[in-house]
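ok so heres the complex, two chains, lmk if somethin looks off
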Amino acid sequence: MNAPTPPPTADVNALYAAYDHLDPPIGPDGTPCAYFEEFRDAQIATKQPVGRSEKHGGFWVVTGFPECEQIIKDVDGFSSAGVIFPKYAVTEPLMLAEQDEPDHMRARRLVNVSFMPRSVQQYGDEMMRSVHELMDGFIEDGKADVGRILADPIPAIVTALIMGLPAEDGPMFDYWTTAITHEFLNDPKAAQPKIEQMYAYFDKNIARRKIEGGTDVLSSVINAEVDGDRLTHRELLGFSTVLLIGGIENSAKLIGSALWRLGWDVELRRRLIRHPERMATTVDELLRYYSPGTIGRIVRRETTIAGHTMKPGDQVMLALPIANRDPREFPNPDAFITDRTNNRHLALGTGLHVCLGGHLIRMEARLVISEFLKRIPEYEIDSNAPLKWTTGQVGGMSRVPIRFKPGKPRGTERGKGVDAWLRHATRP
Amino acid sequence: MPKVIFIDPEGIEHRVDATVGQSLMRAAVDSQVPGIEAMCGGNCICATCHAYIEDERLATLAPPDATERDMLECTSEPRANSRLCCQVPMTEALDGLIVRVAASQH
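and the predicted structre for the whole thing:
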């Protein structure tokens, strides 16, 4: 399905014409990084940070850092209604992500404090317990797919906690999220009933909270008044969907890519073990380097950028993984620098729409990586098992087979969330 | 032009010119003071411009509103002199203000 990496002399217009954010060419290392670097080189050499793709009916592609930043911050000129392109097959509008001002800010205020650093820290103990229980499940085996059994489960377990949903429903969240973000493109008939199942699940959970109340994020949204009005049921479904997708996809792909990188980059791994104080800047460098998400906008006000005039109604895609390699912003952009300073990457957006879960994804990545390395400081990628980079509007390593010296389980009693995942992941 | 003295998380001092009326955040970002991320661009939604104001002059600032107070409580290390720099406008009277950038914004 993936096109081969273009030759180094590929001309920039051809690169733009063939650009498909949902399906970037995968290189011999199993990632699209070499393609992103090559595109960046062509963009810089020709001074063309904007171009036109012929895919999906045609759209603008922006690959330069300052140009992407300008568009993201220009919330009057560019509408977030185009954040996902082509649109997911959901029937309810995605709250926050697809909203413009003033509606976006009203909705954001309802949940914002719940995602501040101190608010998400309260989930730290439970998150750490889950990491160790999951590791107990495979540490005696000497091999595991840590994409499937660590990177996927942790964000789903944490999302369940934050939304006040049963932790053991985590595998189902993953199943629905995949249907919405990937399956609908290739097999819409198979995806549709799963999406309906998700709405039915939220119908039930919303109804219960209206009667019983609760202290979780979902309850606070349900019971919040916005300008004297309650959110409608459709808006609540849109909120639930966005919290679910937003909580799971980016974090899982970031953690998967991180565990893959640390599997072969022995020097990086040892440096991180020796300098745990660099974990925070390392996680931001991972976000820059493996930027999981790509975002779009719809032009609202005619705007000319780098000589291209974008008209109202035009779709624009911001190629964040390429922009995050722009030497005009990042010195030595292809080097992975654990203590990079002033790392203003756009992986989590910027401005008014900056990622609601930005603090949470950083905490998840820091915690998973550091706890994992405490128990498995030496490991390698298992070349006998399949490695997989999942492409899509959010992309990253999703299958990360590793080998290591077997260890001993800690033997704590398994929580329901972890138990459900272990049963799910060992199914053929 | 009044000056602000930002002390970054490494303890390094940055003497920054600030225009009257602009926020402390804008002054810090324009001079690339390390540690002030200001992701949301001054809209009081991300709390990544958290800093501590020198005690002697804290009371001379207009107090934080309810939104900022809620946000400050949920920063990683809130203190009595915590503020979000995007919510503090610069005045002539604040010339020489000492602002310590929080160790972590996350």
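quick notes: The interface with chain A takes residues 32, 34, 37, 39-41, 43, 45-47, 67, 70-71, 73-76, 78, 104-106 of chain B (CB under 8 Å). thats all i got rn
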